[in-house]
UniProtKB/TrEMBL annotation:
<dbReference type="InterPro" id="IPR036890">
    <property type="entry name" value="HATPase_C_sf"/>
</dbReference>
<dbReference type="InterPro" id="IPR001294">
    <property type="entry name" value="Phytochrome"/>
</dbReference>
<keyword id="KW-0675">Receptor</keyword>
<dbReference type="InterPro" id="IPR005467">
    <property type="entry name" value="His_kinase_dom"/>
</dbReference>
<dbReference type="InterPro" id="IPR003661">
    <property type="entry name" value="HisK_dim/P_dom"/>
</dbReference>
<feature type="domain" description="Histidine kinase">
    <location>
        <begin position="532"/>
        <end position="750"/>
    </location>
</feature>
<dbReference type="InterPro" id="IPR029016">
    <property type="entry name" value="GAF-like_dom_sf"/>
</dbReference>
<dbReference type="InterPro" id="IPR003594">
    <property type="entry name" value="HATPase_dom"/>
</dbReference>
<keyword id="KW-0600">Photoreceptor protein</keyword>
<keyword id="KW-0175">Coiled coil</keyword>
<dbReference type="Pfam" id="PF00360">
    <property type="entry name" value="PHY"/>
</dbReference>
<dbReference type="InterPro" id="IPR013515">
    <property type="entry name" value="Phytochrome_cen-reg"/>
</dbReference>
<keyword id="KW-0418">Kinase</keyword>
<protein>
    <recommendedName>
        <fullName>histidine kinase</fullName>
        <ecNumber>2.7.13.3</ecNumber>
    </recommendedName>
</protein>
<keyword id="KW-0157">Chromophore</keyword>
<dbReference type="Pfam" id="PF02518">
    <property type="entry name" value="HATPase_c"/>
</dbReference>
<dbReference type="InterPro" id="IPR036097">
    <property type="entry name" value="HisK_dim/P_sf"/>
</dbReference>
Length: 750
């Protein structure tokens, strides 16, 4: 049987250190040994190289053996009972005897491998009552502290007492995973780290990911020699995921980092809050130090205490803020906005408008005008911000404590008001409300220059060689907005938007009311004009026709005068026809209440009998037509106009043929989707027209031929289009010169 080690020898450099595969180092720390069993058979598939030191048998002898054969059936039964009772990674560790030596074992599963990490039982352990006393002390912290920082300070102190480490820090991350020493307890002779900041590069992404999976990490001696893990060489690139292993070997970069700090041993406990790495309990010792598994679990319990209290403590800290901003909100919410700029000017001067989110100033941009109060940018800058934020947020909202991050080219603007809460007041346009917060310069103490977190020197990669204090002055930044402040600003902005929308609706109603009055008056005037057209104008035309007709029968009228009288008579008749068509067009108005079921076969049949040629029964041919909803009088006028046009524009010396047919099944109108119509076509064999006029022929007074060639006013097809529009339908035409015309009519289904 051939065996090999699985030590990861991948070269780490400046370009790939953030992708270092720290979960598969292929080695462990030497304060225990590790074996990996196949889940189905319990055969030993992985084994650390230090088993000889702990149990007197070499790893080469263990690999390939069944666990029961190697350690006895009693140890096998204890392991199976432990696994079957689902105790893996629980607070109750597996205590067992392996080859006559007692061990405390941490057991977990990695893919299809059961990993056992065995550590010898330490006879010098704290008594159970001591551990209990320390643990119960933490419970009292919940009742004796109010702020989160006070609680963390007591937890740091208590954790140091129970573990004996030289320094215990509560390390808190910001949104970008830069860390801050939030609370600390250390030996009096040590330099305190409290308040120091560490860049996010100190704990790379893959390390943070492991902290999320494995809540406890211990290094007993920074100067340890990694123990390789061996396996049976039966497949290529074989390795073992040690993400959850306590003994997992550490990245050489991290070891160098701790060396640079002068640390000899560490214990790290993850603080998880809302599925995110909130922080760490970081314990440092300046010489080698190991903890028993019991003490590790007791220390880990402190992390649970902190994370269980984060919500409560932050709520306590935010309560006063919330109470204050809610009081301002209640007052300003009672302000009733009315129409007009005076009301907006009065609103902006209300001190509660600034107080509802503890801002230093507020601006309201509405209909091109700026209203401001407190510390705000200039009017032109407010207009710029309103336009920028509207586009950037797509008319939603945004908040920032460092406006310079969004507008790096506008430092002078961002210095005065670096904090901003923006809320749009319409779905499009620049109307908005913006709260501002003034600059708060602060001094951030970094543990070394954060820009030099990992450098390349003679010895290779060297993380954080210097931990000397490095000060950074942070400007163009405001105090962060707290969640109650953001919530209150959002609530008020929504309420203000509703008030403004109501005012707009009222204004629109008033505008439409005035327009309706004007339209009513205009319609009345048009009706009067129609009456004048039908009566006062037609009367003189009739007299002109009557007089000209009488004169035509006089014997002594010269021939040239007779011709002029005939032209006058024809012009007067054309004018009278035009006036009658205009009257029909303008009076075409009705509602759907007038609709009834109309049998088009019957209605069009009547039209055909009225317009057809008795000598040629094939002049107008009809298909079976559907029943539609409409006004019979207007539908009859529709088909009369269409069939009359087909007859009027017939070819000379060719029999007139007009077909009215229906599509066999409902169809969609070309510009509509998923709305079927009855399609009826009126087809003739007349002179046709150029298709480029297919739309314009439905416009009023449009004529394609001279009045001397074909009679008509140019109103007929416009009247047809209006009839179809009022029937919620469509009309269109297709034609080519000399090849007839096809008119398509679309009626909604009943």
């Amino acid at each position: 049987m051939k065996v090999k080690d699985i030590v990861n020898r991948e070269i780490v450099n400046l370009t790939n250190c953030e992708q270092e595969p720290i979960h598969i180092p292929g080695s462990i720390q030497p304060n225990g040994f590790l074996i990996g069993l196949k889940e189905d058979s319990l055969l030993i598939d992985y084994c650390s190289a230090n088993t000889l030191e702990y149990i007197g048998i070499a790893h080469t002898e263990l690999l390939g053996k069944a666990f029961g054969v190697a350690f006895g059936e009693k140890a096998k039964k204890e392991l199976l009972d432990y696994i079957s009772n689902d105790r893996m990674l629980s607070s109750l560790l597996l205590k067992t005897t392996l080859l006559e030596k007692e061990f405390l074992c941490t057991v977990h599963k990695s893919n299809s491998t059961i990993i056992i990490e065995a550590e010898p039982i330490n006879s010098k352990v704290k008594k159970a009552n001591e551990v209990y006393d320390h643990t119960s002390q933490f419970l009292s912290y919940m009742h004796t502290t109010q702020s989160l920082q006070d609680l963390c300070s007591l937890v740091a102190k208590g954790t140091r007492e129970i573990t004996g480490y030289d320094r215990v820090m509560i390390y808190r991350f910001d949104d970008n995973y830069n860390g801050e020493v939030f609370a600390e307890s250390c030996r009096e002779d040590l330099e305190p780290f409290l308040g120091l900041h560490y860049p996010h590069t100190d704990i790379p992404p893959q390390a943070r990911e492991l902290y999320m999976k494995n809540l406890l990490r211990i290094i007993t001696d920074i100067d340890y020699s990694p123990v390789p893990i061996y396996t049976i060489d039966d497949q290529k690139d074989k390795n073992l995921d040690l993400s959850l292993a306590i003994l997992r070997s550490t990245s050489p970069i991290h070891v160098q980092y701790l060396h640079n700090m002068g640390v000899g041993a560490t214990l790290t406990i993850s603080l998880i809050y809302k599925q995110r790495l909130w922080g760490l309990i970081a314990c440092h010792h300046y010489s080698p130090k190991n903890l028993t598994p019991e003490l590790r679990l007791a220390a880990q319990l402190q992390g649970h205490f902190i994370t269980s209290q984060i919500d409560v403590r932050q709520s306590n800290e935010e309560y006063e803020v919330s109470r204050k901003v809610n009081a301002s909100y209640d007052k300003i919410d009672a302000f009733e906005l009315t129409e007009g700029a005076e009301s907006l000017a009065k609103l902006i001067k209300q001190p509660e408008l600034i107080g509802l989110c503890n801002a230093n100033g507020v601006s309201l941009f509405f209909e091109g005008k700026v209203y401001s109060n407190g510390v705000t940018p200039s009017d032109d800058e407010v207009k710029f911000l309103a336009s920028y934020f509207a586009e950037y947020t797509e008319n939603t909202n945004i908040s920032t404590s460092k406006l310079l991050d969004l507008l790096p080219d506008f430092k002078s603007l961002c210095e005065n008001t670096p904090g901003a809460i923006y809320h749009s007041l319409d779905v499009e346009g620049d109307n908005c409300i913006i709260w501002y917060r003034s600059e708060t310069k602060k001094e951030v103490n970094w543990a070394g220059d954060p820009s030099k977190s990992i450098i390349l020197d003679k010895k290779g990669l060297s993380p954080r060689n210097s931990f000397e204090l490095w000060k950074e002055i942070v400007d163009c930044t405001s105090k962060p907005w707290l969640q109650p402040e953001l919530d209150t600003a959002a609530a008020y902005a929504n309420g203000l938007q509703r008030q403004i929308n109501l005012i707009k609706i009222t204004q629109e109603e008033q505008k439409y009311r005035k327009l309706s009055e004007m339209l009513r008056e205009a319609n009345a005037e048009l009706e009067n004009m129609n009456w004048i057209s039908s009566h006062d104008l037609q009367e003189p035309l009739r007299k002109m026709q009557l007089i000209s007709s009488h004169l035509l029968y006089e014997d002594e009228v010269p021939e040239n005068v007779q011709k002029s009288l005939k032209r006058l008579n024809i012009s007067a008749e054309r004018m009278r026809t035009l006036l009658q068509d205009i009257l029909k067009y303008t009076r075409l108005k009705y509602s759907e209440e007038d609709f009834e079921r109309v049998d088009l076969s019957k209605l069009v049949g009547e039209v055909a009998r009225e317009l057809g040629d008795d000598s040629d029964p094939n002049t107008i041919q009809l298909d079976e037509l559907p029943t539609v909803l409409g006004v019979p009088f207007f539908l009859k006028q529709l088909f009369s106009n269409l069939i009359s046009n087909s007859i009027k524009y017939a070819k000379a010396y060719e029999p007139i043929r007009v077909k009215v047919k229906s599509a066999p099944k409902p169809v969609n109108y070309p510009t509509e989707k998923d709305e079927p119509y009855y399609l009826i076509k009126v087809i003739d064999n007349g002179i046709g027209f150029d298709q480029k006029y297919a739309e314009s022929i439905f416009n009023i007074f449009t004529r394609l031929h001279l009045a001397t060639e074909y009679s008509g006013s140019g109103v007929g097809l416009a009247l047809c289009k209006k009839i179809m529009k009022n029937h919620r339908g469509y009309i269109s035409a297709e034609s080519t010169p000399g090849n007839g015309t096809e008119i398509s009519i679309y009626f909604p289904l009943i």
